[in-house]
Design a protein that fits this description.
Structural class: alpha/beta
Strand order of the largest sheet: 4-10-9-8-7-5-6
Radius of gyration: 21 Å
Distance between the termini: 27 Å
Order of helices and strands: HEEEHHEHEHHEHEHEHEEHHHEEHHEEH
Low-confidence stretches: none
Mean pLDDT: 96
CATH architecture of the largest domain: 3-Layer(aba) Sandwich
Helix content: 25-40%
Number of helices: 15
Bound molecules: 4'-deoxy-4'-aminopyridoxal-5'-phosphate
């Protein structure tokens, strides 16, 4: 038995399923999860000292590459003066100021420790601000695991649960609560218009992944975004952009900077903490001022704005703000996707690719899907085989066909070339 298997068996005795977040368990693709011992740049090594090219980068955060020396240094320096104070620091102000500069729709921002906390708090705030209960989300979008949002949710829930319309995607979520969540198909303008015409004045918030990454990578149409912005404004509902994944990843200013949309609230996470537990929600001052201690919407956190996480976040934002960062990230990602597509074409395998900045999607299908339903119709069996053929050759893809992939600035030509060469072999064997 290999060391990964030994560790997985041991882990399952004291940790449910052997993992601390479900999708890590390889349940969709089968096989043994790799236990990581160390990482550097675009690579990590497992418990058997096998090297992998990483194409999930901790599910998004590690955009500067693993163990970036400047970020490591910033974290060490912060750690030497204690890990947490539970009192405010100047670093938090700097981070807040930088976020507000980068994203002009964010006038004020509150820091939390996970994306789940960010979306959960943004929803409460939207409900408190509007005095309404109803929220609208879209099929296949995942916004963390707060109760109201676990309806037709993407990511691990697609892999593990039976998502039936009007039912929670998870056990333990009261039906009484999810009755306040309306789920509409992504990219369906008519459905959105119909719901607003009937119930618009009851809608507290519309929450969406402005480029979806939890049902593979799915882009919104401009018409869909425009309808959402104008309907929410017209009916006084709060438009929440969940940019936990896309923020600082598809572009410095997130999806909203590419789409020319100013949401009312934005949720951030992943890249903004450079791999430390750090997330945030922010937006219009008028809405944010309803939060405690100014307003009556309660939200708090012992470790919120943690100084070590703030140091990692500030240094990460500095690195990604440097000239040419996103041009290079985008170019390398596009090169990778074009190479994969060409390799699949040469092997006569139906395959489509897409990417935005350092976020990527590939689909065993003739065309890039535009809805959750279309993603479920791609060839998942081919994906599973491809996943393992790549893993054997030392390329670590997301272990589910319902997840986007991620590159970093460390994915240079040599790394991209190695992935494409592995894919050529894999396609031949499919
Ligand atoms: N929103 C989106 C769009 C996400 O992709 C995720 C996590 N993948 C979350 C929220 C939840 O973030 P976290 O896992 O940090 O709670």
């Amino acid at each position: 038995m290999g060391q990964n298997e030994i560790l997985f068996e041991r882990a399952q005795k004291t940790i449910p399923g052997g993992v601390n977040s479900p999708v890590r368990a390889f349940r969709q693709v089968g096989g043994t999860p790799r236990f990581v011992t160390r990482a550097q740049g675009p690579y990590f090594w497992d418990a058997e000292d096998k090297r992998y090219i990483d194409l999930i980068m901790s599910w998004g955060p590690m955009i500067a590459g693993h163990a970036h020396p400047e970020i490591v240094e910033a974290v060490k320096k912060a750690a030497e003066t204690s890990f947490s104070y539970g009192a405010p620091t100047e670093g938090e102000i700097e981070l807040a100021e930088r976020i507000c500069q980068i994203m002009p729709s964010v006038e004020q921002v509150r820091m939390v420790s996970s994306g789940t906390e960010a979306t959960m708090s943004a929803l409460r705030l939207a409900r408190g601000y509007t005095g309404r209960d109803l929220i609208i989300k879209f099929e296949g979008c995942y916004h963390g695991h707060a109760d109201s949002l676990l309806v037709k949710a993407g990511s691990g829930l697609l892999t593990f649960a039976d998502s039936t319309q009007n039912a929670p995607s998870s056990g333990g979520v009261p039906h009484d609560l999810v009755k306040h969540t309306l789920v509409l198909p992504y990219n369906d303008v008519a459905a959105l218009e119909e719901v607003f015409a009937k119930q618009g004045n009851q809608v507290a918030a519309v929450i969406l992944e402005p480029i979806a990454g939890n049902m593979n990578l799915i882009k919104p149409s401009q018409a869909f975004l425009a309808a959402m912005r104008s309907l929410t404004s017209q009916y006084g509902s709060v438009l929440i952009y969940d940019e936990v994944m896309t923020g600082f990843r598809v572009a410095l200013g997130g999806a909203q900077s590419l789409q020319g949309i100013a949401p009312d609230l934005t949720c951030l996470g992943k890249v903004m903490g450079g791999g430390m537990p750090m997330a945030a929600f922010g937006g219009k001052k008028e809405i944010m001022s309803k939060l405690a201690p100014l307003g009556n919407v309660y939200q708090a956190g012992t470790l919120s704005g943690n100084p070590v996480a703030v140091a990692a976040g500030l240094k990460t934002l500095e690195i990604i703000s440097r000239a040419g960062f996103y041009e290079s990230l985008t170019r390398q990602t596009e090169k990778l996707m074009a190479g994969l597509k060409q390799a699949a074409d040469e092997a006569g395998i139906p395959f489509a690719v897409d990417s935005v900045g350092g976020m990527l999607g590939f689909y065993f299908a003739d065309q890039v899907p535009t809805s959750f339903e279309a993603v479920t119709k791609t060839n998942i069996e081919a994906f599973k085989k491809f996943f393992h053929l790549m893993l054997d050759q030392g390329v670590y893809l997301a272990p589910s066909a319902y997840e986007a992939g991620f590159t970093s600035i460390a994915h240079d030509d040599a790394v991209v070339g190695e992935i494409i060469a592995a894919a050529k072999n894999a396609f031949k064997k499919l």
